């Protein structure tokens, strides 16, 4: 006699997400826990939609009985007005990557910042956080900035091609972390010369957005470099950083641990972190994640 299994549905809304490993991580963990779990990709690019169609997509997911949605580029901030509740962390960050759909309510959370911090600590456990530069001030950038400051960064300089976005994020983080120095960077070369670390938090380097977010010659051996992009896992930035003697952290850590947090919120079950790390490593072979399973 077979046991009746629960059936859960979730999804990911974003642009150019066909190579995302999030569905596989969620569904494999669900299978390991004895749950029938379907996780769909809702790709704006494939459906020829944009961020302005978010309301329609969320309503569509609710009508289909989804228990939750993950939200990625370019919708992590656009989703905010559509929510009925927002967690304290998400409110401080001004960005949501996880929406729990329950009893007609839309509850926004941010598992990105914790995911980035957990992956970072496993890959660069003794990183010098005294002077960090971040490229990118969007939804992912809000999470990484919050994470590095929560981990104890004393100085954070934020750079973005849109100076207004950089200024808004710097102001937000300065209010959340008044003990730290949070500034806007206008000259990348100048701030990187005296920096101990670089966080890259833009889509540059993704399959749909190939390239480097800065000239490779600005990298120097005194920098560690942390990436948020994970498809591909080895981005052009990380390749250039390794060649110049930098210690690096790939985007796989953030990918796994944000999924750990979202899985728990969606299902109410406690995910097995070590198992999800192994799942991700299997999915990214022959390019392993290179994360130890214990902190």
From TrEMBL:
Q: Which SUPFAM superfamilies match?
A: Aminoacid dehydrogenase-like, N-terminal domain, NAD(P)-binding Rossmann-fold domains
Broad class of enzyme this protein falls into: oxidoreductase
Q: Which NCBIfam families match?
A: PRK12549.1 (NF009201)
Molecular-function GO terms, alphabetical:
NADP binding; shikimate 3-dehydrogenase (NADP+) activity
UniProt keyword terms in alphabetical order: Amino-acid biosynthesis, Aromatic amino acid biosynthesis, Oxidoreductase
Q: Which GO terms describe its biological process?
A: amino acid biosynthetic process; aromatic amino acid family biosynthetic process; chorismate biosynthetic process; shikimate metabolic process
Stated name of the protein: Shikimate dehydrogenase
Q: Which domain of life is it from?
A: Bacteria
UniProt GO cellular component terms = cytosol
